Structure formats: structure tokens, C-alpha cells
Amino acid sequence: MNRTTSLSLSLSLYIVSTLVVLPHFVTDLSAQSPKPNARENVNLPLNVADSIFNANTSITLGTKNISSTPSRITESDFSDKGFLKGVGNVTWNQTFISTYLSDKLLEGKGNGTFETPDGKSIAWNSTDIGRPLNDDRWVFYGIILFNKTQSEPLSFLNNRIGFYKSIAGNETDYIWLLK
Asked: Which residue in 132, 124, 125, 138 sits closest to 166, CA to CA?
């Protein structure tokens, strides 16, 4: 065999083997990924046992309309009581500006603090997407960025990023940290 035929044969085998193996590889990857759909529930692969925070009591402190045109915009204040791993009981103070993109979708931008009973705190900022559940409550999925604090029990959160799931009302809210 001459050099050109040998190279051509090798290249042909490579292309054929890629065409045979690649579709199965892509199928395996896509089968492992959640497939979100705007009309269906999204199942996040987050285990409640891995969360660093869970809130069991939520109080709405107030809500006011900021604008109704071109989109409805509200400001809401909340206070949640919960448990932060490695710290204990904390209060999660929250202020959210929510822009209603439709009757079934809103974008929220939040900020606030986590505070310990002895007054130590860390500030945070977040952004989330909310959608209504079937019973007039809203569920929110968001990303949270913790700022920097000198307070020792909360310093493990310095500049950390996390995900959260929150359901309006007295449902348990959860936060998970990125590793």
C-alpha cells in the first residue's frame, strides 16, 4: 500500500468510528441533564441534606407597588428564621425588587443580611426567577452571592456563591453553596 492509501484508510476508519461512537456519547450526556421546560416543573439535582441553610418560618414584612407600566414592579421585605450549618439559628432578612415579565414569570433582585442572635451578620445579593405554583404561591430559584464579613461564625460564607429555592409562605427554603 502506498502512503496516500494508508492515510486515507486510517482517516476513513477514524471518521466512521467517530460517527458510530459520538451519537451514543451525546445521548448519554443529554440523558443525565435535566430538561427544563417553561411549562413544566424543573427538577434540580440538589439534595436537601446538602443544603447549608433551611428556613422554617417566613414573615412578609411588607409589599408595595413601585410601577405598573410598562411592567408591574414590586418591592417586598421578608424575614425568615432558620438554621445555618456550622452556625445555628439565624435570621435571613430580605428585600426583593420583582419585575413581572408576565402573569406567570417574574425576575427578582434581592439583597439583605443573615444575622445571628448575638448580632453578627453577613450581607448578600441575589437574582432569581419566580413562577406560580398551582395554589397561588410562587416558587423562586436563584443565585446568591455572599459579601465579606469580619464576623467569625459567618466568615466561611465570605465571597461564596450559592443556589436557593424558596416557596412563598411557610414552606422550607434552602440554600446550597457551590463547591
From this structure: 138
